Amino acid sequence: MKTKINHIDSFEEHYKKIYQKIAKRLSFKLIVLFCTFYFTFFFAFNSFSQGVSINTTGNESDAKAMLDIDVAGMSPTKAGLLIPRMTTTERNAITATPPNPESLLIYNTTTQCFEFYANGFWQTITCGCASAPSAAGTISGSATVCPGQIAVLFSVPAIAGATSYIWSYSGLGAIIVGSTNSVIVYFSGAATSGNLTVTGTNACGNGTVSSDYPISVNSTAPNITAQPSSVATCPDGGTVSFTITASGGLTYQWQEYTNSWNNVSNAGVYSGANSAILIISSTPLSMDTYKYRCVVSGTCTNTTSDGLATLTVNPTPPAPTGTSSQSFCSGASPTVANLSATGTTIKWYAASSGGSALTTSVALINGTHYFASQTVSGCESANRFDVTATVNTTPLAPTGTASQSFCSGASPTVANLTATGTAIQWYTASSGGSALGTSEALVNGTHYYATSTVNNCESATRFDVTATINANPSAPTGTSAQSFCSGTSPTVANLTAIGTAIQWYAASSGGSAIATSLVLVNGTHYFATQTVNNCESTSRFDVTATLNSTPSAPTGTAVQSFCSGTSPTVANLSATGTSIQWYAASSGGSALATSVTLVNGTHYFATQTVNSCESTSRFDVTASVSICYLLTSWPYIKPITISNTSGSALTNYQVKHTITFVAGKMKADFSDLRFTDGSCTQLNYYIETYTASTSATVWVKVPSVPTSGTTIYMHYGNSSATSLSNGTNTFEFFDDFEDGVVSTSLWTKTSNVTESGGILYVTGTSGWTGAYNITSVASFGPGVAFYSKGNMATETFTYTNYGFGDNPMFWRRWENTGIYPRIGATIVTSGYNAPINAEWKIEWKPNGSANFYINGNLFAISEVSSATKQIIMQQASSGQTTSELCYVRKFVTPEPTASIGSETSCP
Q1: Using 50, 70 and 90 to split pLDDT, how confident is the model at 780?
Q2: Of 153, 516, 613, 825, which has the fewest Cβ atoms less than 10 A away?
């Protein structure tokens, strides 16, 4: 065998030629095998230019062949060339581990096809086929993927006749792994969208390519096209919602912000937490200022809304205010629209609660009550303002002379017109318009119309008077020195003169009329004429214009405090300046009436007016209106509701309260207690007894308790406060005998009466030589209660009087017969062997009857004369009567009751 080196073409060119021959002539299989072996051998030993010849003759290889196998002459039989043979599983094992065997030729015993490896997959050269594969079906798999997503499965139904599958992707950054009807695709981070196709192939060629399967590489976050908007509602005011509009979003998650952002769930007040609309039902006031946002998640990423959407829960406003009795005239056909109340978005109702709002066209009925509510920030007041409507009868028109004549020289005015009636007013029309000023000059031939007013009701019909004025008019009249404010940029239109068809000039005669838009100049003279019946006055009215500077804003205290119980109004605000006026805004608007009620925390703005010029800047005052106004260092407050069913209004009445200790807030000895009434006036009180850190019995002197009851307020929580308990200031009469000396301003006494260690002693002597006593200076009539805590003597031959003297009603201990109540010489009931040292009380009712108590237990009831009486404590014979506390208070039956409400905190 010989070898010969010859020049050969490149592998690619040879391969193309061979592949074209195979495709055209399948019967030349041996030639294909020969060429395939040649190329395989070529790549196994690298390219070189020498040909190899295998034959029995020793001839050189064909000049164009690198390997020339000539079977001619071979014996004993002809022979062919065998190439590597393997199953599909064995073939795939070769390519499982890189590097891949590019251009490797094999015979697949599974498919019985010649295959070679090229461009990353096995390709079939030829096999026992009859036709090309069928058309590819519809591809299935993920239509949307994310950048960097790996191992995404795509498949197509098995293609009839296909021995392999060719997959193709039109986008960038995708790697397809596999050549069967199912493949996986790896998408890089820079992958782009494209179309995926597949075709079946076999030795006969390729089948029809499938339809494009579009794949979207989604790298775009969801797009929020409409952010959630802030909403406002009322406490428990129904349903509100936040809405987000987004494209590209698959899921939603709403979040709320109080101190941090937190997901909300479909529970409590929330629903729709995972949808585009978050619904909040029955919103409590505590959720005011909550913020909300929504996280919108797409296939690959998410987008969060701006978080600016705020929930505002507006408080329920109070009832409107105004005049509770309003009068109208029948001739005006008054309707609900004519009722007035001070507030925002007023509505009127026929009842104090419930029902539907009345339409403004409903006619008012005399003596009927109408109830107004106001709506602030969408929240309607629960309470309503009660107005009683009075509809007065409209009077008839006045009477008089229908034609009245005047002279021009007298400069007649409306004041010269006459008519018979009450409170006459004149108009220039038979209906409508505004009443004329009495100084208004009359115009010749003009009709003037008079009305009469009775009970503030003006006649609907008017009396017609025609005025006739002869001769030319004189010059207009008015104020010759007129002042203006520089800040208002005054013009000729602001000048005033009394007359008809006024025109202004720059000179006392001649010239043309000045335009009303001409700006006034300080110190300049302007001259006015009037025209009547087309006649202009020849003389002119001289006006000098003065332009004053606009003053600065007033000064004062920026925060001003008031007691809510005094119903403070704008009139109570203060500022330093001239002619102060108050407004509800820092600029614009109308001045507030001084009767407008102040609202806590509201800003009020003051201007001052100097030389009739109002300041353009305003002084800002914040009003603090609170029941805590007086006791700002007491952080806690409880209302005490006092009911009065006695049938009479009470004044300076001592009301008993049992105060329960509030741990951690109230001082253990109750020395921080204070009491105020609705006008923030501090009230006198006396702590009769207390158990530390448990409870206290307190008497409060309430200035006024009407039959409808009243409310006072208990303040506590000031740890540095000292007790203001004072029995003298609280009761009608009081002595606790703590000063060591019998007070001559309270008592007159005999000998043997002393005071020591907080106890009063009245000491008797042996025998029946006389009685020793102490008597109050003050006298008392019915409607009081006497109280004393002390001791009666226990000796056998003794008596003790303990109660009211002078035709007395008292408790008496007589020798050893016991204790019994007595009125004068009359013993009310038999003896009572009660404790000697006890609490003694007599209730002397306004109707004259008396109740006698020992240690709080009712012992006897009796009638007593209405003569005034003094307090007396008396001891006869040996023994000793004592008292450690004595007071007299007012008394009615039934007595007022007190109910302590819930605690609130003062600001």
Answers
A1: confident
A2: 825
Q: Are 545 and 485 in contact (CB under 8 A)?
A: no
Whole-angstrom distance, CA of residue 385 vs CA of residue 349:
10
Pick the CATH number of 223-313 from 2.60.40.10, 3.30.300.10, 1.10.3210.10, 3.40.30.10: 2.60.40.10
CATH class of domain segment(s) 733-890: mainly beta
Q: What's the pTM?
A: 0.40
Q: What pairing do the DSSP bridges indicate for beta strands 525-529 and 541-548?
A: antiparallel
Show the tokens assigned to 640.
């005490």
Element (H, E) at 162: none
Under CATH, which architecture does the 636-654+665-724 domain have?
A: Sandwich (2.60)
pLDDT at 422 over 70: yes
CA–CA dist 700, 713 (Å, integer): 11
pLDDT tens-digit map of 659-694:
999 999 999 999 999 999 888 889 999 999 999 999
DSSP 672-725: T-EEE-TT-PBPPEEEEEEETTTEEEEEEEEEEE-TT-EEEEEEE--TT-----
Do 525 and 590 touch, CB atoms closer than 8 A?
A: no
Identity of the amino acid at 346: I
Q: How many CB atoms lie within 10 A of CB 393?
A: 11
Q: Where are the domains of the chain?
A: 3-83, 141-217, 223-313, 325-392, 403-470, 482-548, 559-626, 636-654+665-724, 733-890
Secondary-structure breakdown of the chain: helix, strand, coil percentages, each rounded to the nearest 5:
10, 45, 50
Which long-range contacts does 362-365 make (Cβ < 8 Å, 24+ apart)? 362/335, 362/336, 363/333, 363/334, 363/335, 364/328, 364/334, 364/335, 364/336, 364/338, 364/339, 364/389, 364/391, 365/389, 365/391
Q: Give the bridge partners for 760, in sequence order.
A: 755, 883
Type of residue found at 56: T
What does residue 15 show for φ and ψ, rounded to 5 degrees? -65, -40
